[in-house]
Amino acid sequence: MLNYAVMRGLRSQWCILVTVATVALAGCTGLLGIDHDYTEEVAPTGDGAFSPDAACSDHLQTDPLNCGQCGQDCEGGACVTGLCQSAGDAAPPQPIFLRQEMHPGWMTSATQSTPAVIADGDLLVVAVYWGQHTATVQVTDDLRNNWVHLSSQDACSISLVQIWYAEGVSGGSDTITVTQTGTGKLGFYLLEYGGIRLAGSFDAASQRSADGNSNAMQVGPLTTNGPLELVIAVFADTRVSTGLIAAGPGFLAEAEDQGFISMVEDDVQAPVEAGSYSPTATLAPGVSDLCWSAAAATFRAR
Question: How many other C-beta atoms lie within 10 A of the C-beta of residue 43?
């Protein structure tokens, strides 16, 4: 179906036949010395004119094979607003945020649990602290998420800590349960974070106990590799009976226990970039002890 046809004769014949999507230039011989046909696909623009670029892609702003104009190949990179991005460019990481924190306290029991409503895809961290060095702990939940444990740390056989986590969790109404093989003191902190990778989020971990009597506590160093990472640390000292553990610079105490002296901190207010970090904390002013233990872990942002 032809919209219009223009036929013009000189010493050679020009034939331009324009359809809705095709311009055909045929029979160009003689003056121009063209002895073959030429065909180009075009499409009408909003003003009724025909634009060659419009036919090659409907998404010139985002098509990596036709980025900004037809034939502009980004060679493996993304096309953003009509400009090619390097294949090595990565999208900026998503913000990390603490969705909720729950702390049921401690008790002398083989089992501790807490109900929680959790969101799909979040990271759950359980920081466990207990006082019987012959006991081991286990974390489970009713939604059967996959729990991974990092190494535990013991100080003086009475102050133990361990970090467990489940990434990319199935959300809904849940109950998180911590079980120990003994019957001594047992407590835990539950923290839920958004903005963490659904899989492969764990990056680094470290554990440490006191080298001697001290007020200052430190765990690390931790070497982080991602452009933005969450750092979590838990500190405990069952031999100390008064005061609170204070978070170190760059960290926020998310919860603490005055009965079984312990505290969990994170850097969620200012997640770190790639580098080496050593989370710190301090016992109450004037208090020093050699039976504190600590554990820390880092997780990559999406």
Answer: 15
Name the pTM for this structure. Answer: 0.71
If asked whether residues 129 and 81 sit together in one domain, one would say no
- Of the two residues 270 and 19, the one the predictor is more confident about is 270
Longest dimension (CA), the chain: 107
Which position has the token pair 């929680």? Answer: 116
Tokens read off for 73: 């190949």
Tokens 């760059």 belong to 250
Q: Write out the H or E segment, with its range, that includes residue 235.
A: strand 229-236
Q: Which helix (H) or strand (E) holds 264?
A: strand 262-266
Same domain as 143, residue 236: yes
Q: Provide the residue type at 56 as one letter.
A: C
Residues 140 and 177 in one domain: yes
Q: Which residues of 255-292 are buried (b: 16+ CB within 10 A; e: fewer)?
A: bbbeebbbbbbbbbeebbeeeebebbbbbeeebebebb
SS3 string, 146-203, reads CCEECCCEEECCCEEEEEEEECCCCCEEEEEEEEECCCCEEEEEEEEEECECCCCCEE
DSSP H or E segment with residue 38: strand 38-41
Q: Nearest-5° angle of CA 241, CA 247, CA 251?
A: 160
User: Quick one: which of 100, 93, 69, 101 has its CA closest to 83?
Assistant: 69
**Which residues form the domain of 17?**
1-56
What does the pLDDT look like over 192-245, one tens digit per residue? 999 999 999 999 999 999 999 999 999 989 999 988 999 999 999 999 988 999
Integer-rounded Cα radius of gyration of the chain? 32
Q: Which residue has the tokens 């979040």?
A: 122
Residues 29 and 161 occupy one common structural domain: no
Same domain, 118 and 253: yes
Cβ neighbourhood burial of 220 (10 Å; 0-12, 13-18, 19+): buried
